[in-house]
Design goal:
Blueprint (H helix, E strand, L loop, with lengths): L3 H26 L5 H6 L3 H28 L2 H6 L1 H50 L23 H11 L7 E6 L6 H10 L1 H6 L2 E8 L4 H10 L13 H15 L4 E8 L6 H8 L11 E6 L2 H6 L7 E3 L5 H12 L10 H11 L3 H13 L4 H9 L1 H7 L1 H12 L3 H13 L6 E2 H10 L11 H14 L4 E2 L11 E3 L2 H14 L20 E5 L4 H4 L7 E7 L3 H9 L9 E6 L22 E5 L18 E3 L21 E3 L21 E5 L23 E6 L21 E6 L5 H7 L12 E5 L20 E5 L22 E5 L8 H6 L6 E5 L15 E5 L2
Parallel strand pairs: 1-4, 1-5, 2-3, 3-4, 9-10, 10-11, 11-12, 12-13, 13-14, 14-15, 15-16, 16-17, 17-18, 18-19, 19-20, 20-21
Antiparallel strand pairs: 6-8, 7-8, 21-22
Helix pairs in contact: 1-3, 1-5, 1-19, 3-5, 9-10, 13-14, 13-15, 19-22, 20-21
Keywords: Coiled coil, Plant defense, Repeat
InterPro entries: Apaf_helical (IPR042197), Disease_R_plants (IPR044974), LRR_dom_sf (IPR032675), LRR_R13L4/SHOC2-like (IPR055414), NB-ARC (IPR002182), P-loop_NTPase (IPR027417), WH-like_DNA-bd_sf (IPR036388), WHD_DRP (IPR058922)
GO molecular function: ADP binding
């Protein structure tokens, strides 16, 4: 039974926790370089610690209450009364400690609030007087002094020259975006200084915008360039400002001009760009005037009018270009020695292709005496050397500070969990964010959808580097954190106490006893001996399911009562098939995310029903897994269930029908008729919220005629993948080929793997799939496309991309297909030898066409 006093104290703590979280959100939005940010930064680590402890206390207590109410009967109740009393006393003491910490924090914040109000009002006058003028560089200034070393820009330069050196009716906007320090400004200056560009344009203007944008000053400086003067302050009335606009328009009219707006940040205030555009002649008789925008934010370039085909992502330098730039800057006197090669490789690898970093480190080496041991000292202590560079830290932190608070936390989370340059999948990132409470459902968007948006935002803002795209070349599936950004985020995380307790040094290759997060790699037993008592997140890679591992799981891992996310991936090695280490998983009562990949586990224990908070359960490629327990139906918060590539798993239990919140279901196998208690196709109707479904058909009696019509009841289904066993018989083909009674309105991705038959299924037509955008057909026996696929003239396809792989028998003519696909922008084919009239060259069976 609940203790009324304790229950009241816990309710009060929930109210306090909501207030504390709102405080933390406010702190997260304050920029650290502001005076208020500097002051508040002292309290953020304390606040985070209190929040973590309060969350742990509340979640654990609620779980205990639920467990007692559901399981205690009178006899057990009296037998365990003493133990419950001891636990209750311990929880009460912890609640009192947390309440005292909250009280102290409230008192300090009340005092601080008064001090900040007085200090900010007095400092405002000083800030207004000492504010730096806008840093505006007329193009004339670019022709004097030293230039940046230009390396690896040849192809980028030619591509952008082709874009800007063409007649166009309207003012063309070209966007160049990339992370801080990658060389966007250098590329823009190189374009301005190119001889053919100078000949093409009558006037070239280069304006550095940066964070604090002053439109009036920019316009006056643009006017002043004709006379070679630089204006640093305006001092004009608003009515005179209109005259400035008119004068600028007059001077540029009938001229072919190039305007470079460098380092543009503002994304919310559109009015300044509208005002500036109003002063720029936009229809100069096809003369080809152009604006180039460089920015760290992709949405800025888009909002200023850059079309997708005129967006250039400025990547980091390749290894060879990085090496060349480093050697040119570090050893300009040609005193580069062969024995220095290992030093160079180490330094260049650490710089991660960022020209700003390469030049900074090369500059330090250049200042030293030309001897290897001094250069080697820099290479051995490169992190410390980079810490000394305020320019580097500011250049990267500026991007971080401009993020909204929730994205700051998402960025810090990935950086402290994963090592430098580690490739991270979008699914891993999103699931870990949700498990930490960083991402929530907002309006009509699920937490998973919101997390995917955050992933894309961080890539577009160049804090994450996109690695591998999906098969349709639409969005990144994996990313990595640049070495320098990772280094910066670790520093910020320690400042903020973000999932980390104070310590001298944090090592991410193994778990520290003082961290709330851990990443382990390999099978060393001492990894587990370092697990801290407050661990919330544990990610493990390349682990061996050895006896030592199983022993460590039972003795250490299963005692981590605050654990929210457990993500383990195993190596394929020769071990006994008798793997049962998952049996104690029910003790991790606060677990939100459980991901086990490539394990030899054979069963999932019934105690999984104790994981009432579980939202993500991924058992990918667990080839020995034979069945899931019926108790899995108790996990009513589950939104992701992934049992794909589990070769021994023949069906799912009927009780999964109770998982009404499922958003993603991968590895669904309808039970055969002879199986009792199995989940059939009809069960899919229970998943009204399902957005993504991957189903596998291995046997003819798994599905009946018209069973596929159940898909029409999944009104929110957006992604569908169907895999069929090889050598399917004609009976199965008939069951998969039907007409849908109503269209799948929301479906936009379709994957058909080993789909049988001579023709594609009847339901693959623009009427049944009116919003389908992406189609992938793989390893099929299809010989031709049906008439329905080409449409009946009433409904046109919206397909944007088609990928055809290993279709050895398909005989179709591209010319005919293209007429039925007016929106197509991408065609990829691999190993389709009988396709005719393809618009692209085929190399080693692979061809790719993109609509120009």
């Amino acid at each position: 039974m609940k203790d009324p006093d304790f229950h009241c104290a816990l309710t009060a703590m929930k109210i306090d926790l909501a207030w504390l979280r709102s405080n933390l959100e406010a702190m997260n939005e304050v920029k650290s370089q502001d005076y208020k940010g500097v002051v508040m930064a002292r309290y953020e680590p304390i606040l985070r610690d209190i929040i973590y402890d309060a969350e742990d206390m509340i979640e654990e207590s609620e779980y205990k209450f639920d467990k007692q109410n559901s399981r205690l009967v009178l006899i057990v109740k009296y037998i365990s009364l003493l133990a419950l009393s001891r636990e209750s006393r311990e929880r009460k003491e912890r609640v009192k400690e947390i309440k005292r910490a909250i009280r102290r924090y409230r008192e300090e914040m009340n005092t601080l609030s008064l001090e900040l109000d007085r200090s900010l009002s007095s400092r405002q006058v000083v800030l207004e007087n000492d504010r730096d003028h806008r840093f505006i560089i007329p193009y004339a200034a670019l022709n004097h002094g030293d230039h940046d070393e230009v390396v690896g820009l040849e192809s980028d330069l030619e591509k952008i020259k082709q874009w800007i050196m063409k007649p166009n009716e309207q003012l063309k906007v070209v966007g160049v975006w990339g992370m801080g320090g990658v060389g966007k400004t250098t590329l823009a200056r190189t374009i301005c200084e190119d001889g053919s560009v100078k000949e093409w344009f009558d006037q070239i203007m280069f304006i550095t915008v940066s964070l604090e944008f002053d439109l009036k000053t920019v316009l006056v400086n643009m006017l002043a360039e004709k006379e070679g003067n630089r204006v640093t302050s305006l001092g004009r009335e608003d009515d005179e400002f209109e005259l400035v606009l008119e004068e600028l328009h007059k001077q540029l009219n009938e001229k072919r001009y190039l305007l470079v707006l460098d380092d543009v940040w503002q994304t919310n205030e559109r009015t300044w760009w509208k005002s500036l555009k109003s002063a720029l002649p936009r229809n100069n008789n096809n003369n080809g005037s152009c604006v180039i925008v460089t920015t760290r934010l992709k949405e800025v370039a888009r909002s200023m009018g850059a079309a997708e085909k005129h967006l250039h992502y400025h990547k980091t330098l390749s290894w060879n270009d990085s090496l060349s730039l480093f050697v040119k800057n570090a050893f300009p006197r040609e005193d580069y020695l062969l024995e220095d090669e290992d030093i160079t490789k180490k330094v260049v690898a650490k710089c991660g292709g960022l020209p700003l970093v390469i030049k900074a480190i090369a500059g330090d080496i250049l200042k030293k005496e030309p001897c290897s041991y001094r250069w080697r000292a820099i290479a051995e202590n490169i992190d410390e050397e980079l810490d000394k560079s305020e320019l580097l830290y500011y250049a990267l932190r500026k991007s971080f500070e401009e993020l909204p608070g929730y994205l700051k936390d998402c960025m810090l989370s990935l950086s402290i969990i994963f090592p430098e340059a580690y490739e991270i999948s979008v699914e891993d990132a999103v699931h870990l964010w949700i498990s930490q409470g960083l991402i929530h459902k907002t309006g009509a968007k699920t937490a998973l959808e919101k997390g995917e948006e955050c992933f894309d935002e961080l890539i577009d803002k160049c804090l994450l580097l996109g690695e591998r795209k999906d098969v349709f070349e639409t969005r990144y599936q994996t990313c990595r954190v640049h070495n320098m950004v990772h280094h910066m985020c670790i520093k910020i995380a320690k400042e903020k106490n973000f999932m980390v307790l104070k310590e001298e040094r944090m090592t991410l290759s193994s778990c520290s006893t003082h961290t709330r997060v851990g990443f382990i790699r390999g099978s060393k037993t001492d990894h587990f001996s370092k697990l801290g008592s407050k661990l919330r997140i544990l990610v493990g890679r390349e682990i061996s399911e050895s006896r030592e591992f199983i022993s460590n799981v039972k003795s250490k891992l299963l005692k981590q009562k605050w654990l929210r996310a457990l993500d383990l991936s195993f190596t394929v090695d020769e071990v006994s098939n008798n793997i049962d280490w998952l049996h104690g998983i029910g003790s991790l009562s606060l677990l939100n995310c459980l991901k086990i990949r490539n394990s030899r586990i054979q069963v999932v224990p019934k105690t999984i029903m104790n994981l009432k908070n579980l939202q993500t359960l991924c058992l990918y490629q667990c080839c020995s897994l034979k069945k899931l327990p019926p108790e899995i139906g108790c996990l009513n918060k589950l939104t992701v269930l992934d049992v794909s590539s589990c070769a021994s798993l023949r069906y799912l239990p009927m009780q999964i029908e109770r998982l009404s919140n499922l958003d993603v279901l991968f590895g669904f196998r309808p039970a055969q008729r002879k199986v009792k208690g199995g989940c059939g196709m009809a069960s899919l109707r229970k998943f009204e919220k399902l957005r993504k479904l991957w189903m596998q058909i291995d046997f003819e009696d798994q599905i009946d005629k018209n069973d596929l019509l159940v898909l029409c009841d999944l009104k929110k289904l957006e992604v569908l993948a169907i895999t069929v066993a090889k050598n399917s018989n004609s009976s199965l083909i008939n069951k998969l080929d039907c007409e849908l009674p109503s269209p799948l309105e929301q479906l936009h991705h379709l994957y058909l793997h080993r789909f049988p038959g001579v023709e594609n299924p009847q339901w693959l037509n623009p009427t049944s799939l009116p919003n389908l955008s992406f189609l992938h057909i793989d390893e099929s026996t299809i010989r031709k496309f049906s008439k329905g696929l080409y449409g009946n003239g009433e409904k046109a396809w919206r397909l944007e991309a088609i990928v055809l792989t290993s279709l050895n028998q398909l005989e179709e003519d591209w010319t005919k297909l293209k007429t039925a696909l007016p929106c197509l922008r991408l065609l990829k084919v691999y190993d389709c030898p009988k396709l005719k009239s393809l618009p692209c060259k085929i190399n080693n069976g692979l061809g790719c066409w993109m609509n120009p």
